[in-house]
Amino acid sequence: MITARAAASFEPVGRSVATARSFVRDTLQGWGFADIVDDAVVLTSELVTNAVVHAGTHAEVLCLRTEDGVRIEVSDRYPEREVPLQQSAVSMGSPDREGGRGLQLCAALATRWGVDYTPTHKNVWFQLNLPERPVGTRTAGPALPADLLPLADGRVRVAVLQVDRKGSISAWNEDAEELFGYPADAVIGKPLTELAAWPHTPGTGTGIAEALQLSRWEGTYGIRGADGRVAQVYASHLRVRDTGGEPSTVCLLVRDHERAVLQTPSRVPAGDQTASSDGQSTDPFEVFIGSPAPDDLDGLLQRTVERARDMLDGDSAFLLLATDDETELEVRASTGLPSARQRFARVPVEAGPGRYGSARMPAVHDDLAAVPGAVPLLAGTGMRSVVTVPLKVEGRLTGSLGVAAEAPGRYSNEEALRLQFAADRIALAVESARLGELERLRRGSLSFLVEASDLLAGTLDRDQTLALMAQMTVPTLATWCAVYTIADQASDPYLSYVLHEDEELIDGIKSLLSKIPPPDPVPTPGARVWTAPGEVAHQAALRSSMRSLGLAGGPTHRVASGIGPTLATASAVGGETVVLPLVARNRVIGMLTLGKPTDEHFRQEILELAEDLSRRAALALDNARLYSERTAISQSLQRSLLPPGLPQIDGVEVEVIYRAAGEGNEVGGDFYDLFPIGNGAYGFAIGDVCGTGPNAAAVTGLARHALRLLAREGLSGPAVLERLNSAILDEGDRSRFLTLLYGELRPQEDGSAELKVVCAGHPLPLRLRQDGTVVAAAEPQPLLGVIEDLELYEETVTLDPGDVLLCVTDGVTERREGTRMLGDDGLADVLTTCTGLTAGAVAARIMRAVERFASDAPSDDMAILAMRVPGIHKEA
């Protein structure tokens, strides 16, 4: 049954692929289908690419919500296609081909998929079903003697929170205030995610936002209290709705050691028995882990350590998973340890000589005080005795499970055998869940990299590229990041950009990093740990604390200046910090630095994803650098082809407006000049070289400088242009034809101005008289750079007081809107409205009229030169 639908159509252009991805992502997230968003985005991206890029047609995307999941249809109008014959084998091609991968992905990721044909359309569809989630089961336990009941504090406090559909806290009881230190008015209206210390990796596990959407959820996480510490809690969530149908989630929270108050009992009590009361055998996995088993890896691991701790009556327990190369173990779950905040910390598999130095063998330590460092994870935790056993699947090490106690000598080989038996029961389930998590992570990583590449390819601005790099990593991959850039091989790394998920901490981190020598620009690929930020921040926080207590030799201050920001910065950068090189074209152009807050670490899969991102970001940053350098060179050359300033001419007003078209202002194009010749005369020119680029720039520079030199030699206008024509033809293959209006201006004693003008293929200059009439001030003559023997002549024009001479390039007259063009007549019509205006006002009015003539940005350079002999002024 279809419960909702959404549709959109996309044009056959490259940017439509990104737009289609956003449409599908927004639609599915709005429907609450976060579990299948990544797969849907990847499949849609491939199918829309096939339609708009390879087939070159419009793509129509239809999303249909069903009770089980979503069906997405992508239609195109590709007229040339092979309709597969019935019962014929379908070949989807090689995965190495550029096209045709869409159907292969459908086959790999979709629950169901297919292709439908009509006379005008081809429709590819796929179905993605939502994963099934078990809900809590109500049970009752037997009556027990008092000495067997679970321990709890004399006053058990149950925090009751209510969270609305947007994830914001709407209710907060007195026990919550007592447990976490926040009054109700300080937290109501805030998102629960601001308080919950919930380790979340994109594409893996269940995040807090997803957990709040489930009908029922139960498990462990942390709440950041008002004192800044994280309190481990056991929580039970229930999704409800009010009489108006508005959903919300009720959350019950207790201290982690009081979990028995809320925890749902196992269907079968844990123990050594493997048979139920009716004599039927029971699955050993369910005996240990309980039923229903958690459906996500994080929940399974957390349940495992809790049951292992209870089984051996320990004070704490921990579980580590092996990396792919089996050289290190990552902390993935713990209970009863402050190291719960050290999630994804890594320890070596082979920690020392002997059987107890390897995680591949069971180990029992009677007293850790006698062998310090034997179990690095327990250093400084107060644990004295520990038993650890390996998790193995088909002889391969997949993890390690340990239980510890505060008293020495608590465990023997008998406990090791019991724990090993339990580890053998759950090893396969853990490995299966881990592989499922990795698969989801890879799918999420693919979607992330596709969108990241699209964003990075969409800009050539260096600063924007730096900002995108940081915004894509925070908070998805890291809590904070810094980007260092290297201008050239002789330059030191420069701190170019800093970002933290909390904007108030950015300045503190930037100040800290500016005082630390940057990391070495090592080109070796991969992430390497950088300890300097955490060490320096810790030392600064220690000094600030000592000064505040008067222990540094100075007076005691009630409130030490700056201690708050210093401690906040130290906490922000106190976790693991890694550096990834940005390598482009075999050169290190910078470093991407990623960091975690105090005691937090990166997981290996996230570092691999960050490495993939750094390679794409490096190339985008280098492209932006090259484009910026090219643009700077182009703009510098463009400025050199224009006069640095205009001379003041007594008795004549002069105004010039020059607008270069196009991003980056390509060199060449239009130019103008106004310069003194001598004896009270001034030369003026406005021209347009055919084309753009270096060859056009060469002709532009030749023309402007040759005009000045030849005019100052006393040559007449025709002689100047004839010699310039010969010089252009001498350029050979680099020559370009040139339209040029050249003239000499000489102010007269009676207040008028005499002009001698030669118009070589250029738009004719227009003369505006005081009575409002507009006439051409010259006759058209051949342009330059085409034929050798030119015979040019000059025309004399006298501008009376109040007259205006307007000279423009063809970018003005050829301004278009559809099939309409401004033209010479349109320019003349605008000029008739400029009677009595100053030269500056005339030029400004012409430019406004040209810009308003069409809605699109100008596609050609434009130059306007207005000269006016002052007369009676009127306001513009």
UniProtKB/TrEMBL annotation:
<keyword id="KW-0378">Hydrolase</keyword>
<dbReference type="Pfam" id="PF13581">
    <property type="entry name" value="HATPase_c_2"/>
</dbReference>
<dbReference type="InterPro" id="IPR013767">
    <property type="entry name" value="PAS_fold"/>
</dbReference>
<dbReference type="InterPro" id="IPR035965">
    <property type="entry name" value="PAS-like_dom_sf"/>
</dbReference>
<dbReference type="InterPro" id="IPR003594">
    <property type="entry name" value="HATPase_dom"/>
</dbReference>
<dbReference type="Pfam" id="PF13492">
    <property type="entry name" value="GAF_3"/>
</dbReference>
<dbReference type="InterPro" id="IPR001932">
    <property type="entry name" value="PPM-type_phosphatase-like_dom"/>
</dbReference>
<dbReference type="Pfam" id="PF00989">
    <property type="entry name" value="PAS"/>
</dbReference>
<dbReference type="InterPro" id="IPR036457">
    <property type="entry name" value="PPM-type-like_dom_sf"/>
</dbReference>
<dbReference type="InterPro" id="IPR036890">
    <property type="entry name" value="HATPase_C_sf"/>
</dbReference>
<dbReference type="InterPro" id="IPR003018">
    <property type="entry name" value="GAF"/>
</dbReference>
<feature type="domain" description="PAS">
    <location>
        <begin position="160"/>
        <end position="190"/>
    </location>
</feature>
<dbReference type="Pfam" id="PF13185">
    <property type="entry name" value="GAF_2"/>
</dbReference>
<protein>
    <submittedName>
        <fullName>SpoIIE family protein phosphatase</fullName>
    </submittedName>
</protein>
<dbReference type="InterPro" id="IPR052016">
    <property type="entry name" value="Bact_Sigma-Reg"/>
</dbReference>
<dbReference type="InterPro" id="IPR029016">
    <property type="entry name" value="GAF-like_dom_sf"/>
</dbReference>
<dbReference type="Pfam" id="PF07228">
    <property type="entry name" value="SpoIIE"/>
</dbReference>
<dbReference type="InterPro" id="IPR000014">
    <property type="entry name" value="PAS"/>
</dbReference>
